[in-house]
Amino acid sequence: MDREAIQQRFGIIGQSQAIRNVIDRVRLVARTDITVLLQGESGVGKELLAHAIHEISPRRHGPFVIVNCGAIPEGLIESELFGAEKGAYTGAVERRKGYFEEADGGTIFLDEIGEMPLAAQVRLLRVLETGEFSRVGSSRPIKTDVRVIAATNKDLAKAVRAGLFREDLYYRISTVVIEIPPLRERREDILPLFEYFLQRAAQRYSTPMRRLDEGARQLLLRYHWPGNVRELRNVAEQVAVLLNKPIISAEDLRSLLRGVSTGRSLIPMPRLSGQEGQDARERELIYRLLLELRLGVQEIKALLHRLVGEQIPRPEQLPAPMKHFSPPSSVWAEAEDAAFVEDVPFEEADEIDYEPLHPTPQQETAQTEAASSAAAQENTAALGSLNGEKLPTLAEAERWLIVEALKRYKGNRRQAARALGISERTLYRKLKEIDEAF
């Protein structure tokens, strides 16, 4: 069976080179009985690929048994996998078969194998090595003819080093490893997948077919997709059921995409190219670390945008002392770049990050006057030192902006907060910090 036939039969949508490589490896291993380890993040479709391997293998007429190792309690997993004799434990009123007996002649799919307890790992290793096992409460060996496909979203090599997974079992189940790339690393497959799920949902729930405008399509492409294909299908079904309009915009989709309001899920993660092997994995690790660093830079940029952005004059409009510590032109340009800042609602973030404060009007007035007076004195001294080419700190610059805003609006905190681009609660908190600093 060729690649296109496999995709059509099992509903594997995508024409990216990454998914083509995965399907090619599936075709190669399916014709053998070799043990396969499927690695990939949650939601990438590991179970679907395991089912495809079984269905195009010589064992396709045998059973295909799925076992979620993470869903079985530790005390029961051995009896579930290998069966138990009558009276083997409290409640064992009769002999029962385990999953390995049920899968005899077919395939057993061990999902989330990284969650398997160490005691069960010992018994599993024996089955893989000898093809024999014994039920719980029995010493009589039972032969089984089972092909094992395992899957994990964990780094099993790291789990081995931490003593959470047996090294000998790791090498036994990873005879062939198939890495399934996350959705963000094959972005050319996002829109075809979404349209496929949207059409299926419209047929299933008898709803009109929706269409995405260009803004919505671009938002889907920019989204990080932490839940991968599973999350994409979930969003498509919500669009089909909840959005009663023929054309779907970016604003319609925004509330359905987890993490968009924080901006973290809009960072593009292009797929790395290069040779396979250790070098490629090291490059990917370095790249991901750089992305984390970039995220930190974006957060700092967002803070600058809030402090010296649209509501605050440009350097040439500032008072003479402030001109000495205005940010360079590149910072202004980056602050106006909405690629990563436009989706960050700072006021909402402030509302979430801090517990609500309810000061009395008298406390508010006293707090504002005390903090403004104290900060004004320090700012005067700090800004006066600029003649000696000493730059104020970011905290000093922030205090200066707050004091100037309060002066301009005659102590009205709401108007001052709006001019500074922050919430009134955040302004109150900063005034409290200034007052405590003195």
Automatic annotation (TrEMBL):
Stretches for region Disordered: 356-377
SMART domains documented for this protein: AAA
InterPro entries referenced in this protein's UniProt entry, alphabetically: AAA+_ATPase, AAA_lid_NorR, Homeodomain-like_sf, HTH_Fis, P-loop_NTPase, Sigma_54_int, Sigma_54_int_dom_ATP-bd_1, Sigma_54_int_dom_ATP-bd_2
KW Calcium (keyword) present: no
Keywords assigned by UniProt, alphabetized: ATP-binding, DNA-binding, Nucleotide-binding, Transcription, Transcription regulation
Span of domain Sigma-54 factor interaction: 12-241
Keyword Transcription regulation annotated: yes
The organism's place on the tree of life at top rank: Bacteria
Biased composition (Low complexity): 362-377
GO molecular function: ATP binding; sequence-specific DNA binding
Example GO biological process: regulation of DNA-templated transcription
Name of this chain's protein: Sigma-54-dependent Fis family transcriptional regulator
Organism ancestry: Bacteria, Pseudomonadati, Rhodothermota, Rhodothermia, Rhodothermales
